[in-house]
Task: structure prediction
Amino acid sequence: MDRTDTTTVASATSPPEVMSWAPAPAANAAAPAPITTAAMARAYARSVVLEQWNSADRTATEAALIDLSLVVSELAANAVRHGGGLAGFEVTPTLRGVRLAVHDNSDVVPAAAFGPGSLPTKHHGNGYGWPVILRLACDVAVDPRPGGGKTVSVLVPLL
Result:
């Protein structure tokens, strides 16, 4: 599946995807313990897919899990490097995949968050994270958090 053209901006009026086939204890699956590193976030996201998203009718492929791990790694690393720390991490199963929500402590919206997803022509020590995110995920949203900081959320398709 070519995901290079799937990036869209989620608006406040976009209806959320709801899983009607599985009981949901809450609107999203918040991590049971504070997630403070990219490794912890990757492990948690994978566990949500394996335990809550996979079903008798569908199973995420290893390639989809690798894509998910890359997106989680980049979002968590961005929160740590540029967002004043990883303030929270959520994984919400949807019909198409999982929605990731990464909370940080910075109000600054990344300039590349809504870009074309093209890779930089020269390496300047950074700059590959958002293009990777935009190529592997869709429905990018950046929302301010009450009390400061922001939430970056994306949908990672698993189908």
Remarks:
- The chain has three helices and five strands.
- The beta strands are 29-30, 86-93, 97-104, 138-144, 150-157.
- Confidence is low (pLDDT under 50) at residues 1-27.
- The helical segments are 38-53, 62-82, 129-136.
